[in-house]
Amino acid sequence: MAECGRGAAGEALPTSPGPALGAKGALKAGAGEGGGGGGGTGGRLVHGRARYDSGGVSNGDCSLGVSGDEARASPARGPRGVALARTPSPAAGPVPRDSKQGGLPRRSSIIKDGTKQKRERKKTVSFSSMPTEKKISSASDCINSMVEGSELKKVRSNSRIYHRYFLLDADMQSLRWEPSKKDSEKAKIDIKSIKEVRTGKNTDIFRSNGISEQISEDCAFSVIYGENYESLDLVANSADVANIWVTGLRYLISYGKHTLDMLESSQDNMRTSWVSQMFSEIDVDDLGHITLCNAVQCIRNLNPGLKTSRIELKFKELHKSKDKAGTEVTKEEFIEVFHKLCTRPEIYFLLVQFSSNKEFLDTKDLMMFLEAEQGVAHINEEISLEIIHKYEPSKEGQEKGCLSIDGFTNYLMSPDCYIFDPEHKKVCQDMKQPLSHYFINSSHNTYLIEDQFRGPSDITGYIRALKMGCRSVELDVWDGPDNEPVIYTGHTMTFQIVFRSVIDIINKYAFFASEYPLILCLENHCSIKQQKVMVQHMKKILGDKLYTTSPNMEESYLPSPDVLKGKILIKAKKLSSNCSGVEGDVTDEDEGAEMSQRMGKEIVEQPNQLPVKRFQLCKELSELVSICKSVQFKEFQVSFQVQKYWEVCSFNEVLASKYANENPGDFVNYNKRFLARVFPSPMRIDSSNMNPQDFWKCGCQIVAMNFQTPGLMMDLNIGWFRQNGNCGYVLRPAIMREEVSFFSANTKDSVPGVSPQLLHIKIISGQNFPKPKGSGAKGDVVDPYVYVEIHGIPADCAEQRTKTVNQNGDAPIFDESFEFQINLPELAMVRFVVLDDDYIGDEFIGQYTIPFECLQTGYRHVPLQSLTGEVLAHASLFVHVAITNRRGGGKPHKRGLSVRKGKKSREYASLRTLWIKTVDEVFKNAQPPIRDATDLRENMQNAVVSFKELCGLSSVANLMQCMLAVSPRFLGPDNNPLVVLNLSEPYPTMELQAIVPEVLKKIVTTYDMMMQSLKALIENADAVYEKIVHCQKAAMEFHEHLHSIGTKEGLKERKLQKAVESFTWNITILKGQADLLKYAKNETLENLKQIHYAAVSCGLNKPGTENSEAQKPRRSLEVIPEKASDENGD
Fold it and tell me: Mind telling me which residue stretches traverse the membrane in this protein (predicted)?
């Protein structure tokens, strides 16, 4: 069984009767349920409670190792030269020593090799971070901090790292550092000579540096200065400090000698006026002060997420610092506390990146942010103005069309900026595919609201499941008193509920959350007499909703969800067509009895060889079963030959796991045509859950979950079916639907024909984390940290954790970036888990699980949910998400490093030899267009990456961000453009308007090369695409008779089977290569749009060309028609 995250293999199955380790036993409160089945990888029991492993993550540590002599020769310097104590970094590793000096540190102020020490996994590792001492709420705060100075690490070529103390001169005209061997006048950079400030590791020195991998992307930044665009490459001790320097330096560049005037004018700004107005509305008598109670309530009204105790404490601290008695609050105090509590530094740093004013965003600034960062298309000033009017709290801001820091915060925290793509809140997938092509939200023992041994049964179980979008519910029906069938778990002490009342509830709520078909899984144990009562109730109550149409014998697949809208399907046993009586014998549906039989046999026999219990079924009930006839599973090869498309097999968890591990390819192919239902082992008497991903990856459609049991597994199920409008049906990946496709559910490598994606997630901050519900600790203080988990096929399963932020659950800053390779995006999920590192009893704070396909890129808030799925009021994570394409084979490339691949090192998709001459000849003809397609894609991607690097950005950036970054360099001293873009041409060209430095010429040359690669792809993609599709269709002509052709060629059984597998592989590769080329062309067209929009936004377009649109390509790539797509061109 695949290992994924913590406890991803499912909750532990007990080895003997007795309670299984469940969500509240093995791994606490949704923090991962015990690794049963295949063994979870990350849970550790500490005094009977679960504890997460750290995984050895040190991503957020900005420290680098330095030699002992450097520490003495270059002490950290505090303000005004006061020496600071240096604390060894936990991630720095061993200090290099010189063997000739008997173990003494070598005499050098540099280290040439950063040695990475492999960290042992421990039960928990905390990377501590105390709340920031410097609360940043304005540009003046940044400037003041820079004047005080801070220790930064200066990175030079050949892996040389220097500890230096950097500070801004009091006159704000130069940046200095000390100590230095240089003359004090040379150890400085004039502010007016600074061209730009880059964030991240985006200069040649960072990219070529041997210890770059040890440097956090979020702590690195570079100052580009001088006519030759030299770089001063620096690493801060934290992302907070880096943000202060970047923000402050950019402010100085923008305003130069007018900085002081701007800082003074910004003290009496729009925000201060608005807060003053809020104060005056309370101070109706114009006394100049208000009560503490009123002040606290006003701030809470303006920021509901703040705790009353926290606001009161801040006022008391302020009064104590002034030796002030009493509880009155003045206007100045009110404004000061509001600024301290309601300004989120991370959002302020973001605002100033896009603000032309540095204190607010106007409509053009907001447009730039929405286009470049949030990926919003077709934005205009009217839309920006609507956003400002909706979220800006001050009337002045609304009237002027300005979004203040408070309005910007409101916008970023609104549902408009949640991480979940709103397009997936409605049905957005093709609902006309066969029913077997969908995952179906399914419930097990729906009538239970606790465990399945002695817990109560209640109709609320059905109401809850149906309201959550469940499309398959279970009814375990037995004879009841007064000739009324009842529902309960047989052979247990669970309560009984009347069958008729359940049917009433189903009739009322069947289509409450979804209009698509509902499947009733009847486990029938009733006598003939009470079976007829069941039929009467269902016909009378459900009426026309019941789907009883006989299956079409000429079809090969089930009807679609679209065709079955509003219908209720009965899944149960059915009498054979040749049964002429009013009743007949069928096999028993008792899943518990079946499981007990097989457990006794230890699954050494085939299921059809086990003793089969039979019972009597009445014809009336049999006739209600149409396209979901329950049958016993036979081995795969038999099922492929004899099973009808309307027949459904149920697999207990243990048997399904066996097939998933031993026959993953057969299981996937079986589920392309037939519905498969997987139910939990009856040994889970505590109603713990299995991992649905273990069976989704094999294509199993109906994976029945215990909805009454919260935890990791239900988080995955709820998160997965949140997509596609929460309608209960999710279209399976194409590779699981196509008749001919090569896919192994247990692959730990990339998937043939599928383009891997790189997911970049930055955990920026958290807001208003509650104390864990089950915590026994006193007080409200938490020490939060965050896990990011990827769940999917084994190749995708991964997890990373942030550092711990001590004693700050209100506004912890994490500022850590992670990267994950996603090999099968259509089946991947991302789970954010927030935990308390200093817990007693319970560490779980909140979580959020989202399908990869539903992620919105850009700056997003993640609304956290409780263990039981309720939204935690005001609790969220603030993150940045970027998704890029993988380039080439091998391991994923490091962020910030060049990902260009030369043609000689390029890896081309390979086709396999079948040793069937006629078929191999067709595939041989496909090799040239595959190489052409790869060259077109790689040349385009490499050229784009080269341009991004010259713009000073990482591969995560888009071309709009590149154009925005480079545009200031294209402006001359008089603000006239040195370079313009001619947008009247289909492929915009850069035209020099004056003599420019060599570094700008290089950018123009690289841009031209990029544009040539974009042009080559657009103009040649269609022809190459058609060649690949033609080869695919030609090969598919052999598919139906491949066995007989191979036999004629003399292939024996084993080689023939290998030839069939190779044929499937080749078809999958061909379709994948065609799709990749299609996506590459779409990406190229999007790149051209971004260049066009950015040039207009920055004013770099050649006069008279701003309204011109690039000419459309000759024709667009045509997708394979739906039928051909499903059947691979057959």
Answer: none
Roughly how many angstroms between the first and final C-alpha of the chain, as a whole number?
34
262/323 same-domain check? no
Residue among 1069, 1072, 1067 nearest 1129 (CA): 1067
Residue 977's contacts (CB-CB under 8 Å, 6 or more residues apart) are 970, 971, 993, 1099, 1100
pLDDT in tens, 770-804: 999 877 666 678 999 999 999 999 999 999 999 99
User: In this structure, how many other beta carbons lie within 10 angstroms of the beta carbon of residue 914?
Assistant: 28
Please tell me whether residues 395 and 470 are part of one structural domain.
Answer: no
Q: How far apart are CA 561 and CA 555, in angstroms?
A: 16
The answer on pLDDT for 22 being more than 80 is: no
Contact 121, 58 (CB under 8 A): no
What pLDDT is recorded for position 2?
44
- 151 touches 66 (CB < 8 A): no
Rounded to an integer, what distance in angstroms lies between the CA atom of residue 718 and that of residue 420? Answer: 14
List, for residues 533-551, the tens digit of each pLDDT value: 999 999 999 999 999 999 9
- In angstroms, rounded to a whole number, what is the distance separating the alpha carbons of residues 538 and 475? 12
Contact 532/620 with Cβ under 8 angstroms? yes
Which residue type does 775 have? Answer: S
Take residue 711 and report the two structure tokens written for it.
Answer: 């935890």
Residue 90 maps to a domain: no
pLDDT (tens digit per residue) in 672-720: 999 999 999 888 888 899 999 999 999 999 999 999 899 999 999 999 9
Residue 219 burial by Cβ neighbours in a 10 Å radius (0-12, 13-18, 19+): buried
**pLDDT averaged over every residue in the chain:** 81
With beta carbons less than 8 A apart as the criterion, state whether 177 and 233 touch: no
Q: Looking at the structure, do residues 657 and 788 belong to the same domain, yes or no?
A: no
Q: Which two tokens stand for residue 883?
A: 């998704």
Residue 801 to residue 789: CA distance in whole angstroms: 9
**Per-residue DSSP letters for 1089-1112?**
HHHHHHHHHHT-BPTT-TT--PPP
Question: 51 in helix, strand or coil?
Answer: strand
